[in-house]
Design brief:
seven-stranded mixed sheet; 7 helices; 13 strands; elongated; binds S-adenosylmethionine
């Protein structure tokens, strides 16, 4: 299997034995060190930054490492989509929140919903190992963890001889105190409501028999498809009698940009996601195709 996992294309859940996950690996120093020191295990890095992912892939190829995988996605959705329950041995988060602000509360990696998903995918006795330079973040994480009633919590000051990651280096050189927090799963987490996505095996193009389309009704519009599910259209490009619609789908916080194509065929049109767009096939993506059809055919 290749180092880069295209979560939109592969069969899920993943089946990689002895798997540990690092969330937000940045330059990749930590995950590479772990992989080299533990060749019998596999490591999966999840990052939001495309640049970090590209750098890690290059490094893995250069150093010929066979036990590192990664993907580019928000950690919550990465865990939700890729892993079975009770599957991951340990999870690592190093300095995940360098500019800790109250107004960013909902975006933090250790909100109750995110910790809930991480806990579900973690094996019993598995650990979430967190390093941070910010005690407020540690307190916030402990509060989320306590609410789930599934972790033994251990905390302390981190004593470091050799800094591993960029941020560890940075905070140590600034003389900051570093903290560690270990959340050890001893039972299943208490259920809390959390965002979900529903994937489908296949998307179905829709055919309309129409001579004239109401294309103008589709440009720069927003539609509510379901609770917390919004479909937006932007610019529309025309080529002869076919169209490409720039689109955005927001499903409970999972965002994807893609093009919908409206292609002239025989005595009508076929509406589908453009083959040049890579999109996660969800139920709401199908609803977006259906919505476009409804608008342009005026039905
Ligand atoms: C401050 S950096 C720390 C990087 C590295 N762990 C280190 O210690 O140098 C935080 C990293 O987490 C990533 N990140 C933040 N939120 C994330 C999320 N929701 N899912 C995945 N990665 C995330 C950022 O892109 C960034 O690379």
């Amino acid at each position: 299997m290749l180092c880069y996992i295209n979560y939109k294309r592969i069969n899920k859940p993943l089946n990689i034995p002895n798997l540990e996950v690092e969330i937000g690996f940045g330059r990749g120093d930590f995950i590479v060190k772990l992989a080299k020191e533990n060749p019998e295990k596999n490591f999966f890095g999840i990052e939001l930054s495309q640049i970090s992912v590209e750098k890690l892939i290059k490094r893995v190829e250069k150093e010929n490492l066979k036990n590192i995988y990664c993907t580019c996605i928000d950690a919550y959705w990465g865990f939700f989509l890729l892993f079975k329950d009770n599957y991951i041995e340990n999870i690592y988060m190093n300095y995940p929140d360098p500019w800790f602000k109250k107004r960013h509360r909902k975006r933090r990696l250790t909100t109750p919903e995110r910790l809930y998903i991480f806990a579900k995918k973690l094996k019993l006795r598995g650990e979430i190992r967190i390093r941070s330079d910010n005690y407020e973040f540690i307190e916030f994480t402990k509060e989320s963890a306590e609410g789930l009633e599934c972790f033994e919590i251990e905390e302390g000051i981190l004593v470091i001889k050799e800094p591993i990651t960029k941020y560890e280096n940075k905070w140590l050189s600034m003389g900051r105190t570093l903290y560690k927090l270990i959340l050890r799963k001893f039972k299943e987490p208490k259920f809390i409501p959390h965002p979900t996505l529903e994937e489908v095996v296949e998307l179905f193009p829709v055919k309309v028999k129409a001579k004239k389309l109401k294309i103008k009704d589709l440009e720069n519009k927003e539609f509510k498809l379901d609770e917390e599910v919004y479909f937006k259209t932007f610019k529309i490009w025309q080529r002869e009698e076919s169209y490409l619609v720039e689109s955005l789908l927001s499903e409970r916080g999972y965002l994807q940009k893609f093009f919908i194509q409206i292609k002239k065929k025989d005595n009508g049109y076929v509406i589908d996601v453009s083959p040049y767009s890579e999109a996660l096939r969800t139920k709401n993506l199908q609803k977006s195709i259906n919505k476009v059809t409804e608008i342009i055919s005026g039905s």
